Automatic annotation (TrEMBL):
<dbReference type="GO" id="GO:0003677">
    <property type="term" value="F:DNA binding"/>
</dbReference>
<dbReference type="InterPro" id="IPR010998">
    <property type="entry name" value="Integrase_recombinase_N"/>
</dbReference>
<dbReference type="Pfam" id="PF22022">
    <property type="entry name" value="Phage_int_M"/>
</dbReference>
<dbReference type="InterPro" id="IPR011010">
    <property type="entry name" value="DNA_brk_join_enz"/>
</dbReference>
<protein>
    <submittedName>
        <fullName>Integrase</fullName>
    </submittedName>
</protein>
<dbReference type="Pfam" id="PF00589">
    <property type="entry name" value="Phage_integrase"/>
</dbReference>
<dbReference type="GO" id="GO:0006310">
    <property type="term" value="P:DNA recombination"/>
</dbReference>
<dbReference type="InterPro" id="IPR050808">
    <property type="entry name" value="Phage_Integrase"/>
</dbReference>
<keyword id="KW-0233">DNA recombination</keyword>
<dbReference type="InterPro" id="IPR002104">
    <property type="entry name" value="Integrase_catalytic"/>
</dbReference>
<dbReference type="GO" id="GO:0015074">
    <property type="term" value="P:DNA integration"/>
</dbReference>
<dbReference type="InterPro" id="IPR013762">
    <property type="entry name" value="Integrase-like_cat_sf"/>
</dbReference>
<feature type="domain" description="Tyr recombinase">
    <location>
        <begin position="225"/>
        <end position="413"/>
    </location>
</feature>
<dbReference type="InterPro" id="IPR053876">
    <property type="entry name" value="Phage_int_M"/>
</dbReference>
<keyword id="KW-0238">DNA-binding</keyword>
<comment type="similarity">
    <text>Belongs to the 'phage' integrase family.</text>
</comment>
<keyword id="KW-0229">DNA integration</keyword>
Length: 433
C-alpha cells in the first residue's frame, strides 16, 4: 500500500521510522511534486527533491528538519523545480563549485609545499630504507648543504631547471660525485612530490632528456679531473713526514693512506667495525659508495697505529674530532695543505702531482696506490681494483663473491712496506701472485 503524503507539521513531528528495514524511509509531501521527507532508523529527518533536468534525473538535498520547516522546504523545492525547467542543473553546479574549490585548495597547498617540506616527507616515506639514523643523515646532508640555500624555501611547483642548474653547475667540474648525488636525490624528492600532487609537469632535476643536454657526462668530467696524487717515488718520503705531524686528523690521514679507502670511510670508522685480532676492518654497505660491504685486510703497520690510538669513553669513532663528532673532510685536506706548504718552503717544490702540477689531496692517495700496484708490482689487476672497492666484472667478478681477503692481505702489507720505506731498508724482493 502506498504511503500517505504529508501535509502538516503535526504529521511531520509524529512521523516515525517503521523499523521495517535498516534503511532511510521516505514520505511524499503534498503540494510540490517530487518533494519528500526522509527519516533515518535513528529518527533524523531531512528534505529531498527529485527533479528532471535536461532529461537527467537529479536528487537534491534541501536541508534537515526542523532546521528547515515545511513551508521553507516547499519554497526551496518550487525554486529548484523552476530552475530545472529552465535547464539549470543545480547539482552539477554544486559539484563543479566543489571541484573548483578543491582545485584551489590543492593549488594553495602546492604553493605552501616547499622543497624543505618535500625532503622531510620523502625521508619519512623511505625511512625504512635507512638502516641507521646516521645513514639517513648522510643521505640528507648533501641536499641540505647545497640545495637548501637555493630552493629550500621555494614551493616545489615553482622549481625550474635553471634553479637546479644554480645548484649543480658550480659543483659539476670540481665535485662531480657530490653534484651527482645531490642531483639524483633532488630528482627522487621532486618525483615523490609530483606523484602526491604537489607539482605538475616535468621533473627539473631529471638527467635524461633534461640536464644531460646542458652538462657534460660525469665520466668525461671525472676523467679530466683526476685527483692530484703524491708521486709513487716520493710516497715513502711523504708518509714519513706525515707521521711526524700531530693530531687525530694526521692519524686518520695515515690510516687512509695505508688502507687506500675513501675519506668518508675513515672518518666514519667505528671500533665495532674493526677486529684487531683478525686484522680486518668491515665497512658496512651503507657507508660505501657502491652500497656493498667492503672488508679491508689491515697491514701490520695499520694495526699498530690503531692499537696506539687513545679511545674516547662512550664514543664509538676510531678517529673522533675534538668535540666527539666525526672529523670533517676539510680536516684531512688541511693536513695535506699544511704539509705541502711546509715542504714548498723547504725545497721549493712541495707535494705536487707530476701530471697536473697541483698540490696532492687525500683522495689522490688512492691513485698513488693504484699507480704503485700497476707500475711497480705484479699483483693481479683485479686485486688492486678490489682494494679500491671498484666493481670488478667478467671473469674478475668471480673473485668479488668472496672478496679474496687473504689474497689481498699480501698486497696491503707490500703497500705498507712501500709507504714506510721497509722495502728499501730490507732490500727484500716481494713475491707476487
Amino acid at each position: 500500500m502506498a504511503k500517505p503524503k504529508l501535509s502538516t507539521v503535526k504529521q511531520l513531528d509524529a512521523l516515525p521510522h517503521t523499523g521495517a528495514n535498516n534503511k532511510p524511509e521516505r514520505y511524499g509531501v503534498e503540494g510540490v511534486p517530487g518533494l519528500y521527507i526522509q527519516i533515518t532508523p535513528k529518527g533524523s529527518k531531512s528534505w529531498l527533491l527529485r527533479v528532471s533536468v535536461n532529461g537527467k534525473s537529479r536528487e537534491l538535498g534541501l536541508g534537515g528538519y526542523p532546521e528547515y520547516g515545511l513551508k521553507d522546504a516547499k519554497d526551496k523545492a518550487k525554486e529548484q523545480r523552476a530552475k530545472a525547467q529552465l535547464g539549470i542543473d543545480t547539482k552539477a553546479e554544486k559539484e563543479e563549485t566543489r571541484a573548483k574549490n578543491a582545485a584551489k585548495a590543492r593549488e594553495a597547498d602546492a604553493k605552501a609545499y616547499t622543497f624543505e617540506k618535500a625532503l622531510d616527507d620523502y625521508v619519512d616515506i623511505k625511512r625504512a630504507t635507512f638502516k641507521t639514523y646516521k645513514a639517513q643523515m648522510q643521505w640528507e646532508s648533501p641536499v641540505r648543504r647545497y640545495a637548501f640555500p637555493v630552493i629550500g624555501k621555494m614551493p616545489v611547483d615553482e622549481i625550474t631547471v635553471q634553479d637546479v642548474l644554480k645548484i649543480i653547475q658550480p659543483l659539476w667540474d670540481t665535485k662531480n660525485e657530490t653534484a651527482g648525488r645531490v642531483r639524483s636525490r633532488m630528482e627522487l624528492i621532486i618525483a615523490s612530490a609530483i606523484v602526491r600532487g604537489y607539482r605538475k609537469g616535468d621533473n627539473p632535476a631529471r638527467w635524461v632528456g633534461n640536464l644531460a643536454a646542458v652538462l657534460p657526462p660525469a665520466k668525461a668530467v671525472r676523467d679530466v679531473r683526476n685527483m692530484p696524487a703524491v708521486p709513487i717515488a716520493r710516497a715513502a718520503e711523504w708518509f714519513a713526514e706525515l707521521r711526524q705531524c700531530a693530531g687525530m686528523g694526521s692519524r686518520a690521514l695515515e690510516f687512509l693512506a695505508l688502507t687506500a679507502v675513501r675519506s668518508g670511510n675513515v672518518r666514519g670508522a667505528t671500533w665495532e667495525e674493526i677486529d684487531l685480532d683478525a686484522g680486518v676492518w668491515e665497512i658496512p654497505a651503507e657507508r660505501m659508495k657502491m652500497r656493498q660491504a667492503h672488508t679491508v685486510p689491515l697491514p701490520t703497520v695499520a694495526l699498530d697505529l690503531l692499537k696506539a690510538l687513545p679511545r674516547m669513553q662512550g664514543n664509538p669513532l676510531v678517529f673522533p674530532a675534538p668535540r666527539g663528532g666525526e672529523l670533517s673532510d676539510m680536516t684531512l685536506s688541511a693536513t695535506m695543505r699544511r704539509m705541502h706548504a711546509a715542504k714548498l718552503e723547504q725545497d721549493g717544490v712541495g707535494w705536487i702531482d707530476e701530471t697536473s702540477k697541483a698540490p696532492a689531496v687525500p683522495h689522490g692517495l688512492r691513485s698513488t696506490f693504484r699507480d704503485w700496484a700497476g707500475d711497480m708490482t705484479e699483483y693481479p689487476r683485479e686485486l688492486a681494483e678490489m682494494v679500491l672497492a671498484h666493481t670488478v666484472g667478467g671473469v674478475e667478478g668471480a673473485y668479488r663473491r668472496g672478496q679474496a681477503i687473504e689474497r689481498r692481505r699480501p698486497i696491503m702489507e707490500a703497500w705498507a712496506a712501500h709507504l714506510t720505506g721497509a722495502e728499501q731498508e730490507s732490500g727484500k724482493v716481494v713475491r707476487f701472485g
